[in-house]
Amino acid sequence: MSATPYARVLFAGPDLSEGSFAELFRRQLIALRGEAALAEIVDTSAGDDALWQRVQESPRPLLVIDLDPQSSAQHLDWLRSGLAALDAPEQLFAASLFGQFDSDPASAACILAERRELHLDCVNVPALPDAHSWSCIPPHARRLLLCNGPRCTRRGALPLWKKLRETLKAAGKLECEGGVHITRTQCQFPCDLGPTASLYPEGEWYRIRDEEEVLRWVQERIVEERSVPEMLMKVFVQAG
Ligand code: FES
Q1: For residues 213 and 218, what is the distance between their CA atoms, to the nearest angstrom?
Q2: In sequence order, what are the residues at sequence separation of 6 or more whose Cβ sits closer than 8 angstroms to the Cβ of residue 90?
Q3: Distance (Å, rounded) from C-alpha 204 to C-alpha 229?
Q4: For 108-135, b where at least 16 C-beta lie within 10 A, e where not — what string?
Q5: Ligand 1 pocket, residue 184 CB under 6 Å
Q6: Assuming Cys at both sites, which of 6, 15, 58, 204 could form a disulfide with 199, CB separation 3.0 to 4.6 Å?
Q7: 49: Cα separation from own chain's centroid
Q8: Would you give per-residue pLDDT tens digits along the chain (240 residues)?
């Protein structure tokens, strides 16, 4: 029995239905809260409509634990704003692990559910300011889109983001005149060939598998401005 004042706690995030993370999370959650707790899981892999619908159908007061691996303070504000638009928002609360999962994510989520002081209401969500300094697009000559979708993540894409930024920065090519603007994306489609990275305006598709290939790609493609045919994907765009 929860010591918190909620009629229901929902655990929401992507990849909570299948895959290694889902298996571990579900097994641990059953051990902590019993089989019935599986009904508290909301998989948002296919979009957030599933979450809004579950919240609408749930009794109040209600707490949503944010399990998105890419969560941040901004993501939590976005979640709270979404909850604020639903019925009885004064009885809706949200809390986040900010993507900081250890080997026992269900325990971390259940502990967070008990820590009332870490739960934020959804009524007084700060409005988005009209002008943020970070809303100015930095100078760049190219855009690199690195896939962090589920298949590429399983092929090791997550740590490549940090390594790409570090390597581009060390080469003087990160978000500057003549440099590369880098963005993480969800699935870009050629999952079987990933981890996927696409470069624009050239429209080139690369497979970048590990840190060694990050170093090679940045040096050869960006610094020396020559092609890296061994890393190019053979992608086919379906006819319309
Ligand atoms: S998950 Fe990366 S291309 Fe599909």
Answers
A1: 8
A2: 121, 122, 123
A3: 10
A4: bbbebbeeeeebbebeebeeeeeeeeee
A5: no
A6: 204
A7: 16
A8: 446 799 999 999 988 998 888 999 999 999 999 999 999 999 998 888 999 999 999 999 999 999 988 788 888 999 999 999 999 999 999 999 987 877 788 999 999 999 999 999 999 888 877 776 667 889 999 999 999 888 888 888 888 998 999 999 999 999 999 999 999 998 999 999 999 999 999 999 999 999 999 999 999 999 999 999 999 998 878 876
H-helix or E-strand spanning residue 151: helix 150-154
Domains in the chain, ordered, with CATH?
8-121 (3.40.1360), 137-231 (3.40.30.10)
Asked whether 69 and 37 are in contact (CB, 8 A), the reply is no
Q: How far apart are CA 230 and CA 123, in angstroms?
A: 53
Q: Are 38 and 26 in contact (CB under 8 A)?
A: yes
Please report where in the chains the tokens 């691996």 appear, as a residue.
69
Per the CB < 8 A criterion, the answer to whether 182 and 128 are in contact is no
Q: Compute the C-alpha angle 53/56/60, nearest 5°.
A: 140
Question: How far apart are the CA of 237 and the centre of ligand 1, in A?
Answer: 15
Confirm or reject: Cβ of 152 under 6 Å from ligand 1.
yes
15, 144, 145, 147: residue to mutate for ligand 1 pocket, most atoms within 8 A of CB: 147
On whether the pTM is more than 0.70, the answer is no
